[in-house]
Amino acid sequence: DRGCPCSLRNRGGENRKIILFMRFELISPSQTVLSVESIVALTVMTEAGEITVMPHHEPLISALRPGILHVSYYVGHKVHESTYVTGGGVLSVSNDSVAIIADFVQDEHDLQDAEFIEAQKTEAEHIVQDFRANNGSIVDPRKLIEVEYDLLKYTAMHQLARKFAESRPPGTRK
Q1: In this predicted structure, which of 49-53, 60-64, 80-84, 146-150 has the lowest mean pLDDT?
Q2: Beta strands per DSSP E along 57-172
Q3: Closest by Cα among 69, 51, 73, 71 to 61
Q4: Residue 13: left if φ>0, alpha if ψ -120 to 50, beta else—which one?
Q5: Distances (CA, A) of 63 to 123, 124, 131
Q6: What is the pLDDT of residues 71-107, one digit of tens each?
Q7: What residues does 52 pair with on adjacent strands?
């Protein structure tokens, strides 16, 4: 059964179905954005780079970088997919669950104003450039990290909005 979160194992001629459930929660400061009982996979940007988590992943805790989160999950026997832009946060993977707590979460369907997002991304790029030019060798690392995280967040929003805009039929809202 292709849509089932399970695996068939043949042990001594005996077929056994082993369920591969892995619960997932995506939490922002204001709400639980997504809570599902079983994921197929999720891909997210961590401080160490992009990783994909699937059932039976090794337990870990990692800091998140702003970027794009893609998650495939089961609703009944059908696989659904959702994509979000996340800010900084924490990824926690245990034997049977995954939780992401992020300071910013934006659903791809809410990224409709591509011009505004492009302007925000451009402004963030200018802020980073100005900050580096004006601070020379004396840099407040916390401020630089904050400014660069904003740039990463708006860059991810821009990438996802552009992808979403390309997938819409012509003549629909920007």
Answers
A1: 146-150
A2: 60-64, 67-75, 78-86, 89-93, 97-102, 105-107
A3: 51
A4: left
A5: 26, 22, 24
A6: 999 998 899 999 998 988 999 999 899 999 999 898 8
A7: 43
